[in-house]
Amino acid sequence: MANTQNETWTTVIRPKTGWFDIDLKELWQYRDLVWMFVKRNFTVLYKQTILGPAWILLNPLLTTVMFNLVFGGIAGIPTDGVPSFLFYMAGNTVWTLFSSCINNTANTFVTNAAVMGKVYFPRLTVPISQVFTSLINFGIQLAMFLCFWAFYAITQPGSVHMTAWMLFMPVVLLEVLMLGLGVGIIVSSLTTKYRDLAIAVTFGVQLWMYATPVVYPMSSLATSPRMAFLVNLNPVTHLVEVSRLALLGTGTVTLWGQVYTAVCTLVLLAVGVVLFSRIEKTFMDTV
Amino acid sequence: MSNASESRTPVIQVNGLKKKYKLGQIGGGTLTADLQSWWARIRGKEDPNLIIGTDTRLFGTTFMALNGIDLTVYKGEALGIIGRNGAGKSTFLKILSRITAPTEGEIKLNGRVASMLEVGTGFNNEMTGRENIYMNGAILGMTRAEVDSKIDQIIEFSECGEFIDTPVKRYSSGMFVKLAFAVAAHLDSEIMVMDEVLAVGDMKFQQKCLGKMSDVAGQEGRTVLYVSHNMSTIRQLCTRCIVLDKGRIIYDGDVEKAIAIYMDTTDVNVVNYDLTAVGRQVPSAGRRLFVERLRFLDKESSVFGNNEPMRVEITWRANEPFDGVNMKLNMHYRDGSPVGITHPVDLGAAEPGKTYRTVFSFDPSLLGEGQYFFFLDVFEKALTSPVCLDKPNVEFHFEVTNTDMTMPEWPTGWGRIHFPPVKVEGREAE
Fold this sequence. Notes:
The structure holds two protein chains of two kinds. Chain A has helices at 24-29, 31-46, 55-74, 84-105, 108-111, 113-116, 125-155, 169-191, 196-210, 225-233, 235-248, 255-280, 283-286, and one strand at residues 11-13. Chain A is mainly alpha-helical. Chain A has one domain (52-286). The longest helix of chain A has 31 residues, at 125-155. The two termini of chain A are 39 Å apart. Among the domains of chain B are: 6-26 and 51-111 and 220-265, Rossmann fold (3-Layer(aba) Sandwich); 272-413, Distorted Sandwich (Coagulation Factor XIII, Chain A, domain 1), CATH 2.70.50. Chain B is 23% helix and 30% strand. Chain B has nine helices and 20 strands. In chain B, helix 4 crosses helix 6 (173-186). The relative contact order of chain B is 0.11. Chains A and B meet through strand 1, helix 2, helix 6 and helix 13 of A and strand 1, helix 2, helix 3, strand 4 and helix 4 of B. Strand 1 of chain A pairs antiparallel with strand 4 (104-109) of chain B.
């Protein structure tokens, strides 16, 4: 066997070792699979529905109308002088990108246990494909938002204006995706052992929205510094505020808030990847 | 190994592979249940989530599904893997296809592994046949371009040409299987792992599959690992064979010899089986009712003449009240092929916490000469389908010998069942 020691092996299967055990090169080789999963996510979601992909637009549209009625009309929460419809739609669009990343990746192991129990592929392709699916939905919803934006810009000149922060938007979106992915894979890793987390997460994400300035601007909390402090601890707050500053010209953006968010994002994603890589090798024995 | 194989290139090298499983339930499944158990342990009380009557000594005991496997497989070999239930075959394939990680040791591979532990894995019902070919290819690690170059061959082999753009949920089960096999067999993986997938499809297609597999190994120079209980397909397909027993390789080499050794691992000298620490064939089995022991009575070895009744005693404990508990025996020939099942029999009502001993007898004269085993299946009759209560993953072996001198010797071509003579109802002279 001495001669085989010098052989080059393409794969070595070992007991789980190390903390960061994700093969990025392999993940790249499986990029076609990520794309297939994205396609599957759309096919499965809209097969045998009447309205089909129209739901991508109907969902945020109805939510915005409802927010407009409840929070703008009944509760009378101010929207920083921006048309309330655009204000809610901007916040909701960014929030939906984040929440759908979490909700869709949280069940990765449990819903795919049948396939994963029979064949190997890098497990991370599943949550990554969910993130891309969310991103495509977001793109469509953003396009709708821009149509409404243009409508308001023409009919009510001066009510909205984009700012130079638009240049920063790609970074913001990347942070939203990474944060959503990070939290999602942490939850999905833990749901292999505790199924009740899957139920808790849907509810938790709903609550999380109210801790994020989606239906109210950060400036409305100026009078209660304690509330403002708590909401500022939420990293998504800064992402939503900076997006609104870019798209509508209104929002509270601080340097420390952006740095804090970036650090949170990186830490949560790293924790997620570490947990995920530890779970993926043996989860078949516990599911 | 012979000198010839040493000069060939190894594609799989397994060193000291071990896999350990914990027996008993791991965790409560919900966070609240785990916290409850933890809180009870702290206060020194009994765990509220423990199933009543469960033997706590078994918790934390470990079981070595694989206990040190060393193996080198060379390019172009078709390796058969045989062994009885629980010998570690499936665990080995699972580790090799990277579905679960080993506890110790390592496997080095040269090339991609296409595993077919079940046909049609990753098939999505809503997608068309063609889309599923791409999907399955991608799952097996192929790029789009690689699948593109093979797709015509795949469609032709699958015999599903007309329906290829129809969602697979409209396919018959036969078509589904054919397409799935076609995909796996045509994709460019250097190593193919298969777990009895050929047991599906019609006879003609099965032969076509076997032929394709031989080509894959012989002419295309790929490596095939094949697990089966069906000795005839092993004979037809494999060039080398290993026998697994209790997580170790007990033989490695010639196919015919391996099959002979596998047949000989049949143990008729055991007449007393302790079932408290063995696995169950169904996950929920053994909780509501637990079979602790099975004993062949009045015998020192389980060899029966065909006029001698087989008497068996089982000891079982009920953890719940039952109005009636049913039992049947699933009979198999020693090579694993099914022979038949006994008609269910009612063992009577049971009270929780009580242990019962039931003695039953079986007439071995119903079987032709040879070695057999049965599985014990205890179940509850329900309105819809029976609910399994306990089914130990143990083959209870016995041998039937011919003591009836009026019968000729029992050749294999006669089948296994020994029917009673026909009843002559009358005779008239013409």
